[in-house]
Amino acid sequence: MLPQDASRILEGLHPSLRAAAKNVLFHAFGAQGMPWGTPLADLEALSRQVALALQREILHAALQRQADSPLPDSLTSCPSCSGPVRLGDPQPHDLNTDAGPISWQEPTAYCPRCRRAFSPSSQEPGH
Length: 127
What we know:
This protein is of the alpha+beta class.
């Protein structure tokens, strides 16, 4: 995705983000809303933590959804010998991001010709 696409996507998400903000505030403070006298600094701190949690959830959901989808033809051959691979059981994949650690189940593959296991998404034998 190019940076100009992000602006377009964000603009389209605005109604959903507004609804999500109202939902977060309802669950954080109840139907009565934020108590009078709540320092703005406290609300800013909460909103930063919510933003990071949302970022982690978006990353996890996107990566897991991609991992759960069928592999494109370009990823069903060995990166070393270009031979066909056998798909294996998904394995946990952990990654540290700017928003904190995330984890998802990554597809794996095995090349009978090279006798190498790899993750099709990384296209690096042995990883």
